[in-house]
Structure to design on (392 residues):
């Protein structure tokens, strides 16, 4: 039976159901102000995860770098959209977020920002300077006795493009980088061989399927003669391979095995994936399950109606084996440990740790309701003094 193709209207209706346009300067300010606070709390959670020995010091530093990039991205977007609704019918230029599954801006917004960043320098040459715009605003107010709305919009776009040129941004694809972790000693019988080189490979994507920022961290052993980041034959292929596999729908086991099979001299010992979301908010998203009632009850106090999911998936190598790759050749392959509590290892990970970052008021409501489905989820609670406390 032939598969029915969705009509343009059906696709549009689906997007309308999943996406929400943030209208009005006040709502836009509230949205970005909320995320500014949440991202700052993410940094505190990363630091606390390091203290609790859930991540290594190097992983904590890498995660903090990506969080800084995410903060810069949201700052830039806040300038872009702040005045967009005040200059006529610009509904197509207003911010769209994923209201059902992420709470973050939709992927196309981040993609457009990356495109704008490439052209920022040339675009700024066509815009008046901030000083000139301010003088024009004063002249307009004195002469016209009205708000200089169009000039304010021009100023917001000027600042937006300036921010794109001067800040480290979280892009749709943040290419893999290799951090040297040293050499591993070989056994005596293998002294004549080169020592294994160890790297932390890290990269990140703004996942186009889930609309959630996602960080990847891989501990990798390299038995090649040339250092991987300096190897023009392997490193570009490795980067391309990892980016092409960076989808939330793929299991960590699939990603790690793919690299292990395609590169005989590279051995992934541990792979982690950190999902920085979804973000749930009574004011901006549609919740399902126990969080819906929790956030609805917590919404009585401004700024306390949100929760952010923080999930860390980990896949570790349990042992190695030799596998024939030709008539007279063989290669080392990793045997990965899978969570025995998962159904037949269907999660494709050794361990999955789920957490929620939420304000103290939302946590109080959550504790009162005590939903069983969240009993094993760690809670990072933001106190009234912004200090983060950790509870199970």
């Amino acid at each position: 039976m032939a598969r029915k193709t969705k009509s343009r209207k059906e696709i549009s209706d689906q997007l309308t159901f999943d996406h929400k346009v943030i209208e009005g300067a006040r709502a836009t300010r509230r949205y970005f102000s909320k995320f500014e606070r949440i991202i700052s709390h993410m940094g505190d959670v990363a630091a606390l995860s390091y203290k609790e020995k859930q991540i290594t010091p190097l992983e904590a530093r890498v995660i903090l770098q990506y969080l800084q990039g995410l903060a810069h991205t949201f700052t830039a977007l806040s300038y872009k959209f702040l005045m967009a609704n005040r200059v006529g019918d610009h509904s197509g230029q207003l911010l769209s977020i994923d209201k059902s599954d992420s709470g973050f801006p939709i992927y196309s917004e981040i993609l457009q920002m990356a495109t704008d960043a490439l052209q920022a320098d040339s675009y700024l040459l066509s815009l008046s300077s901030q000083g000139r715009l301010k003088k024009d605003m004063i002249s307009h107010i004195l002469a016209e006795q009205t708000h200089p709305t169009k000039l304010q919009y021009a100023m917001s776009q000027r600042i937006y493009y300036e921010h794109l040129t001067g800040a480290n941004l979280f892009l749709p694809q943040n290419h893999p980088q290799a951090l040297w972790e040293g050499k591993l000693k070989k056994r005596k019988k293998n002294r004549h061989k080169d020592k294994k080189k160890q790297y932390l490979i890290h990269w990140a994507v703004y996942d186009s399927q889930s609309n959630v920022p996602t960080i990847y961290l891989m501990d990798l052993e390299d038995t090649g003669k040339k250092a991987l980041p300096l190897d023009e034959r392997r490193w570009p292929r490795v980067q391309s391979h990892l980016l092409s596999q960076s989808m939330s729908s793929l299991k960590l086991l699939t990603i790690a095995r793919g690299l292990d099979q395609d590169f005989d001299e590279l051995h992934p010992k541990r792979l982690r994936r950190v999902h920085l979301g979804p973000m749930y908010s009574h004011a901006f998203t549609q919740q399902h399950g126990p969080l819906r009632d929790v956030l609805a009850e917590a919404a009585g106090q401004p700024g306390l109606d949100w929760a952010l999911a923080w999930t860390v998936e980990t896949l570790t190598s349990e042992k190695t084996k030799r596998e024939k790759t030709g008539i007279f050749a063989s290669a080392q392959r990793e045997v990965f440990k899978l969570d025995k509590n998962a159904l037949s290892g269907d999660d494709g990970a050794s361990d999955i740790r789920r957490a929620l970052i939420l304000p103290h008021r939302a946590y109080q409501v959550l504790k009162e309701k005590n939903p069983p489905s969240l009993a094993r989820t760690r809670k990072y609670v933001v106190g009234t003094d912004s200090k983060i406390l950790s509870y199970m």
